[in-house]
Every structure is written in structure tokens, then in C-alpha cells.
Design brief:
alpha/beta; Rossmann fold; 3 domains; Arc Repressor Mutant, subunit A; WH-like_DNA-bd_sf; methyltransferase; eight-stranded mixed beta sheet
């Protein structure tokens, strides 16, 4: 019964208490006072929050080990507290509560209404069921306030921060697999970052491999590319919809980072077919940087993302056999898979079949 209680009482109310404490300004105040202790009375005075309410919120945060109780209504910070004092980290809580949590609690009812089959339509999944809208999640997000969009960007930054990257020396062998065999022509394209957002992956690639030959191209929707960070002259920015034919033909590589897990199988097939149509046999590669769910021992990050993708995008994190079928259907073949022992995502290298 304790496990049930933790799942249905403790965890949901912990989320609520953390988000409330974020809105109250609890965590920055506590970190600023650290290593000294902070009392409930000090926090109530500093934030203008009712003392009795402050005590209740802090008690649950301590019970859930978000903060450390050292005396009656007296607390110290933990590493979690320090993280929550950073705005772009704390933004994950209001982001989820605003854009996904109601849909998560509607999953069972939605699936029952569909005969317990996985959703395959981006405009008909638990998100639309819970929020009473008909547009896809990303379209809905674009109608929200700048603050909501900013929280989403913060959340994605936090998710990727500190995780192994495919450009690390102990991950994917870029020199052996891409640089070797690259045409000796400054006008040749080394990599097209398809759906590359604001260029963070290209920036990291150049930081760790500054002598990459040829051109780099950042592609995303025109309104996204306009907001790209300042990038070196070797990077060309291009507005492009990856569901449409790929305009850059014969590049050494086409890179998809966390793209396919955002889309149902039908759209993924379209994305890959558009790339296959632009590839040069025996030269071009597609690099899929995404989670591959193992047959056994999947960790909670992988499985939680899988459910969340179903909830808001009618998509999924995929198993290897699912990737193999999707890639083969698009006229491609897998030529290698690289993973990192401390990472969640893998790098799937593909060529024309």
C-alpha cells in the first residue's frame, strides 16, 4: 500500500508543492542564505506568503527530500534545491503543468475511447482530448504566450544539458565515418542539420571538431531559423519544411536530432523518403540521433518519454526493430549504431539500400 500511496498521493502533490514553491520564490531565497538554515517564518516574511501555508509546503518538500529538515520549521538546501533556484531549470515545472499534465491524466480515458490502440494522428491524441482542441500540440504551442514558449525552450535545454553528445570522441567516430571519404571541395556540404532549431548542435559540433571540412547547413522553419544564435560563416541558414523535398542534394550527411520521435510512423516515412531522394549512393549518410528502446532494461527516461510522446504528439520512442522497418521502408539501410553507456540516445547511421 505504501507504493500505491506514493504514486497517487506523494508524487502528484510533490509536483504541486515544487511548482508552488517556485512561484513563491522559495528556492532562490534558500540558496542565497546557504549554508545557513532557512526558517518558514523567514520565507513567509520575505515572500509575503501566509505563514501557515508556507509551513505546509515546506513540510511536504522536506518529506519528499527536495529540501532538508534540520529542526522545527528549519531547513537546509539540497542539490535539488540548488537546481530549482535556477530559472531555466525551474521552468520545467510550469511548462509541464501548463502544456501536458492534464493530458497525462486523461490517457486512460482517451485510449479506452479508441479501443486501446496507440494514437497515430497528431491532431487526435490525449492532448486534444484533455484540452478540447483540434490542432496539433506544436501548432497550439505557437498560439500561446511568449512565456509559455520560453519555458518550453528552457525545458528542452535542461533535458539535453550534461548528457553525452554524438560529437564526443567516445561516442560516434566522426573522423572515420564522415571526414574520411569527404570530397576535397570547399563547396561540398559536410552536414545538413535537418530541423536543427537554433543551431545548438552545429555549435557544439564546431566547438569539438573545429576543422570540419566543407559547409554546414542549418535547416528549420523560416521563423525558427530567424532566431538562430550567431554561428560561424561556414554555417548557412535555410528555411525548410522537412516534410517537403530536400533541396540540398549529395551532402555527406543529413542529421536528424530528436526529430523522428516527434512524429507518427507515416510522417517519419515521409521525412526519411525526402532525404533518401537527395542522397548520393555510396557517399551520403543519414544520421538519426534518437532514443532506441532496448529489448530489456529500458530506463525510466526512455519509457517516460515514450508515454509523453504518445500523450502530446501521437508518436513514440522506438525499438530497434521498429527503426529497422521504418528505415527499410524509406529505401535506406542501417550501417551502424553507436550508443554511450551514460546516455539515453543513440546514433543510427544509414545509407541508401
Amino acid at each position: 500500500m505504501e507504493s500505491v500511496g506514493r504514486a497517487v498521493w506523494a508524487e502528484p502533490t510533490c509536483f504541486a508543492a515544487v511548482e508552488t514553491a517556485i512561484n513563491m520564490g522559495v528556492f532562490p531565497f534558500m540558496v542565497k542564505k546557504s549554508p545557513s538554515t532557512t526558517t518558514a517564518e523567514q520565507l513567509a516574511v520575505a515572500t509575503g506568503v501566509e505563514y501557515a501555508l508556507m509551513c505546509r509546503i515546506l513540510k511536504h518538500l522536506a518529506a519528499m527530500e527536495v529540501i532538508l529538515e534540520v529542526g522545527a520549521d528549519e531547513y537546509l538546501v539540497t542539490s535539488f534545491t540548488r537546481a530549482l533556484a535556477i530559472k531555466h531549470v525551474a521552468d520545467s515545472f510550469p511548462h509541464i503543468s501548463t502544456t501536458a499534465a492534464p493530458a497525462c491524466y486523461s490517457v486512460s480515458d482517451f485510449l479506452a475511447s479508441k479501443g486501446f490502440k496507440s494514437p497515430t494522428d497528431v491532431a487526435d491524441c490525449p492532448f486534444q482530448y484533455a484540452y478540447k482542441v483540434s490542432m496539433p500540440w506544436y501548432d497550439w504551442m505557437n498560439t500561446q504566450s511568449p512565456e509559455v514558449l520560453s519555458r518550453f525552450n528552457s525545458h528542452m535545454t535542461v533535458y539535453h544539458k550534461g548528457r553525452p553528445s554524438w560529437v564526443d570522441d567516445d561516442f560516434y567516430p566522426i573522423q572515420d565515418r564522415l571526414v574520411k571519404g569527404m570530397r576535397d571541395d570547399p563547396d561540398s556540404v559536410f552536414l545538413v542539420d535537418v530541423g536543427g532549431s537554433k543551431g545548438q548542435d552545429l555549435e557544439e559540433l564546431l566547438q569539438k571538431h573545429p576543422n570540419i571540412p566543407g559547409k554546414l547547413i542549418l535547416q528549420d522553419q523560416p521563423e525558427v531559423v530567424k532566431e538562430a544564435r550567431p554561428l560561424p560563416e561556414s554555417v548557412e541558414m535555410m528555411g525548410h519544411d522537412f516534410l517537403k523535398p530536400q533541396p540540398i542534394r549529395g551532402a555527406r550527411s543529413y542529421y536528424l536530432h530528436s526529430i523522428l520521435h516527434n512524429w507518427p510512423d507515416a510522417e517519419c516515412h515521409t521525412i526519411l523518403r525526402q532525404l533518401a531522394g537527395a542522397m548520393e549512393p555510396g557517399y551520403s549518410k543519414v544520421l538519426i540521433n534518437d532514443t532506441v528502446i532496448p529489448a530489456t532494461g529500458a530506463n525510466w527516461v526512455m519509457t517516460a518519454h515514450d508515454i509523453m510522446m504518445m500523450v502530446v504528439l501521437a508518436s513514440s520512442e522506438r525499438r530497434l526493430d521498429e527503426f529497422e522497418a521504418m528505415i527499410s521502408k524509406a529505401g535506406l539501410k542501417i550501417t551502424g549504431i553507436w550508443s554511450h553507456p551514460n546516455g539515453v540516445q543513440s546514433l543510427i547511421e544509414c545509407e541508401l539500400a
